[in-house]
Amino acid sequence: MQIMCQKRGRGRSRAEMNNANVDGDKGDDARSQSTTYKSLQLKRPDKKNLSHDLKNGQDMDVDDLQDGSFLNAVVKVYCTHSEHDYSLPWQKQRQYTSTGSAFMIGGRKLLTNAHCVEHHTQVKVKRRGDDTKFVATVLAKAIECDIALLSVESEDFWKGTKPLRFGCLPCLQDAVTVVGYPLGGDTISVTKGVVSRIEVTSYVHGSADLLGIQIDAAINPGNSGGPAFNEKGECIGVAFQVFRSGDAENIGYVIPTTVVSHFLSDYDKNGKYTGFPCLGVLLQKLENPALRACLNVTSNEGVLIRAVEPTSPAKDVLRAGDVIVSFDGVPVANEGTVPFRFSERIAFGFLISEKFTGDLAKLGIIRGGREMNVVTTLKPRVHLVPYHIEDVQPSYLIVAGLVFTPLSEPLIDSECEDSIGLRLLTKARYSLPQFEGEQIVILSQILACEINIGYENMSNHQLLKCNGVKIKNIRHFAHLID
């Protein structure tokens, strides 16, 4: 089984990588990209925060979607990508091209998927029925939620255009229509289906867990970044990935407008994307009665804190062994869920995703059988091994032919997990950073020369110390060498 997303995600083992991919139509020069998962938190802003022309629309017959003028707001994206070579960090890989979809949201901005413009060197867009491609600028990229914001300076591009209206979170079995420019043709494509599920979903490209809409409408490579409409002609989300399995068909995923609203509000407020925050703890379900009794938890509520991340503000108020029973007054069940709409339940992380970086969270906890309330600040997670390295050249240092570089998921993908070694992989995937800026520095390879004769075959070993001093990061190592 696969979750398709033809750009890179980061996270777990090679076997898990083979089960995940993000939709997007690549050119022939594109090399295959592995994708993976990693947990984060998610979001559901209030409807009043859905700016950018969020208005109530009139009911529209789905059969008339082909004639809807709002389809003219959907454009085709042409992107040229140039990714860094992480095995040879002083150079880049060969360029490749891909196509995707985007749509107008007001303020002369376009919305698409982040994986459609990943490692971009040039982005162009073309309107429906037009023969001219216009150069676009990437204003912001949100890797976690796989959203990117584009702008086009040309006045000709915006003549006679009308932005899409955003709708609210749909209900189960609501009709949905996906519009975009998938492979198989150059004109706009329309597919229909229904909403089959709404829950916290693994976002392959961003290696995050956020609210997602599952639909049964066909989503194919090239549909990425295209809008999904309800029967009123309102945009209810952004198509971004599909699930492939021999036992399942027509399972596609849409980024809901609640997640889109969080991204846009973050960008409008800060002038850039600051990310989804996290609580900074590792949690465990508390369904076992014996475990609850051991922790002096008499109710059926709460989840156990297994560990607190050293770089998180939560380290000042939370401890391993605490039981979280409420978040901002919302009770947390022992299987890690909280109340959702219509008597439904959803993963606890959903409440955290509604917050923004720097927001405060009030937690009800049980510590040693005693109930208490604490307040902590929410910040984005600090990763010991980054999942994405965007728009900057990978750091490296060459000393006597020895090539040192920080360990990253792109490097692991490039080198293949077998060559990295189980011990280093385990540290990369499960270790927590002890301070901000900490890196795992490795000896990537040795460039053969007279001074390193006899060591030419060494590669992918962690550098622990230099002259007896423990290495903090690549910059610290360079300072010690100087």
TrEMBL record:
Residues 280-334 form the PDZ domain. Coiled coil: none annotated. Belongs to the peptidase S1C family. One of its GO terms (molecular function) is serine-type endopeptidase activity. PROSITE patterns: PDZ (PS50106). It comes from Taxus chinensis (Chinese yew). GO terms for biological process: proteolysis. This is PDZ domain-containing protein. InterPro entries: DEGP_PDZ, DEGP_PDZ_sf, PDZ, PDZ_sf, Peptidase_S1_PA, Peptidase_S1_PA_chymotrypsin, Peptidase_S1C. Residues 43-58 have a biased composition (Basic and acidic residues). It holds the Pfam family PDZ_3. Residues 1-58 are annotated as: Disordered. Keywords: Hydrolase, Protease, Serine protease. The keyword Protease applies. The keyword Cell membrane does not apply.
